[in-house]
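pasting input
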Amino acid sequence: TVCDFIFRLKGILEFACQLDNPNGVQSQSTISKSFQDLRSKVTSKNIVFTVCNSPVLIWPNTGFQSSVESLTEASACGDILQWIESDDGGSKKSSKKKDKKKSGPTVVNMKLLFEVTEPAGNTAPSLIRVSTQQHCVKMPLPLDCALSVTTDERLETVCTGLVEALNKQLADMEEVVLQYRKGSSFLVPQPFHFQLPEPAGLITVVYPAGVPDSQLQAVREDLHRKFELPCDRPYLRRANAFHFPDAAYKDGYLRNPHIHLNPPNIEDAKLYLVQGVYSYHHYMQDHVDDNGWGCAYRSLQTICSWFQQQGYVETAVPTHTQIQQALVDVGDKEPRFVGSRQWIGSIEVQAVLNQLLGVTSKIMFVSQGSELATKGRELANHFQTEGTPVMIGGGVLAHTILGVVWSENTGQIRFLILDPHYTGGEDLQTITDKGWCGWKGPEFWDQNAYYNLCLPQRPKSI
Amino acid sequence: MGRSYFVDEAVEEYLVGIQTAPGSCVTGLLAGQSSPQRDFVVLAVQTPHRESEGQPKASRGVSPLDDIDVEWVTEHAKQVSRMLPGGLCILGLFLVTPPELSKDAQNALKRLIFAMDKYITKGRLWELSEEDVTDQVTLHICSKTKKTVCKTFDVKDPKSSAKPADWKYQTGVSSSWPMLSCSVAVDVQIPMTGSSSDITDKCMKDGLRRWAKQIEAACCLINGRHALDDSELVSGQKKNPKTTHRQTLPARIFVSDAELDERSSALVQLCSGSVKVRGVVHCRAYIHNNKPKARHAAQAIKRDIINTVCSRVEMFLEDLLINEGSHKGLCSGQQALPRRVFAPVPVSGLSVCDYMFPDESTADVAERLKEMLDCKTPEEDIDTSLEGNQLFSNVCGSEITESPSDDSSKHVFSEVQTENPKNQKAPQYYAGVAITAAVALLATATSLLYFNE
């Protein structure tokens, strides 16, 4: 089932309670009582969903009321789109139609608000004072619920579903808060969304802030069992969190530029691509002028970004200096290597992946470039089982291979290449138009040079 | 290019009718609404006579101008600003002088206007925005010729000099101004880190400021429409001076609970207690009808919401200080804050408001309206129905555990025999009479018993 829409509701509810004795037996029931009050609040008539960038307000708990006459109980959720002002004003004009691919479900962002007008009574205010010594606890709960729906789903059903989701999330948050509380020290419960294989779909898990993934292994094992997920690759680490199509990446790197390309149409050939998400690293980024010598470093950075975003490691993508230091640390290079502008090759890439990320890699040697055309089966297998980006070095250049189109019968092959020699800015248009990320034929390689390929292997962990 | 003040004819009448003793000066306030293009003056009130504490002060200075009681003028301004609903505020001062003092009047007005602005804005819980007009008007009137000189000062700039301004009289300046209104549920929990009145005051201010920020950031619907961007306020009313019907536009306010910060753990404070402000406030705001923007209207009603809560807490604490001295601070239990009542100003029909303490009556309100706003309002015109009376005995020390998040599951209702805080504000006619009668009755009954035996 393809979902056309994701309705995402975000809001902040303040959790507050007063504890006489944080270590006493009473405190748990006090905390639970406060959560109970919050759950009542989200089922009350006072809650309102505002649709971002639109004049639409919806009161979900009053038998569906909206601020816009044309949106009623019976309205399909797709009807809401006509009211939403899009942020970008027609930037799509310049792109070539044939290269544009469907970008996935439309995200409708909503915000949770509470009405303070139209109160039930009208008794004028009083001051109520409590004079016992207490621990006053205040914690903003970052509510974030998401629902995947098809376009014909009724808006009213979506809103009821979101209210249910809020309730469930508060219950999950209460569990996490109680489990990780130590006296008067409370950890903020944070929701993360994950897109799991069908039938599970989009789910939300609440993790305690500040507790690293490594300490949440048992929680993930339970969830892997519950959702029948494979036990050898991560799905529920924080880095695996679902990236909403409309959200920009804060670090500014482009993600998966290859998805904007159409693969070559080769008869009888199949497509084998990198799995998951990587960032495009290339010359001149991060204020490092590595033009002419840093290509293998950049390919290595792209590979590291893949391991980070699939949740295998929490370490940041290493800098040139860190890469060089790692090679010194393993004894592969002399200390003066650090700060130099020396090239590295596949063997060094393999060594650094092992040293910094704990990742092992296979090395494939090709004695001349013309032979690469015969490596279709190996590369196809690699992308199918491991699905990691491949670094290839030879001649005087290094590149990243992101996939192949290969025919088992005819042997025809094309390579999806991500080129680290690009010196411009993060302009997707230029990168795809000019082939800095593009499909190349076997003639792309220096037919006489020898090549080494580094094929990183996925660790078996969740 | 100076500012333009459009002034209601009723104000002209009032100013012309001011009586001054020969050789003396009269000060007073001007109130109304400012907008970026022009200003509207709808009310003028002369400074009330101050009851002197004993001997009238001997003339200190060379001229009666030096005898102007700056403190009293600014105090009057503060009291009046509390009585103005949203959208209306003190716009400036007027000064009536005999002809021989006219040339020194400007300096006096300048001193007064800066002092007044400083005093009124102290303790305000919302910040001025870039679009807010910071000019205040000074109007000098010669008591003999009745000639007026109108100038403005930018009170944000201490070095600002007087700029000329236009002063034009018009009929029915505010007659078609729509009035926004709403009732707002307030429920603010404020932790107290100490019990002295200084700390209490600071904690209250901090807690209310957080709440005020929520209100300022809140989403607002006016008459069913979002008050966003630069859209004009749609009140559906054409400007027609003959129309006396004033439209009431309901406002709805939607808040987000708190600001998100990047902390990964809760904020925990060890407190000596907490104070909750809980109840419903009724709010009103006026907006001029010269193509007003919806967001200005939203801002006016939001500021009224913030001001009304802030004012009554301030008044309550001031009252506490007068009656019990600074060492006591707030006592435990539930205490009613003064509730808001509204009354129409004669001629313009605009609402002004006042705050009634639990032991006060509309007679007290009428008295204050006369004293502070120089307007005679019949008691029956004072609307006390908009905010409900708090129905509990205002006894200090009784533990009324109504808050569900209290850690104490015990519902203690221990009545500590403390005296009801006596209110100096109004004479306790009714309470006093009742008690006297009761005592008399008891005495009679007792004496009867004895005699019958």
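fyi Residues 397-453 of chain B have pLDDT under 50 and may be disordered.
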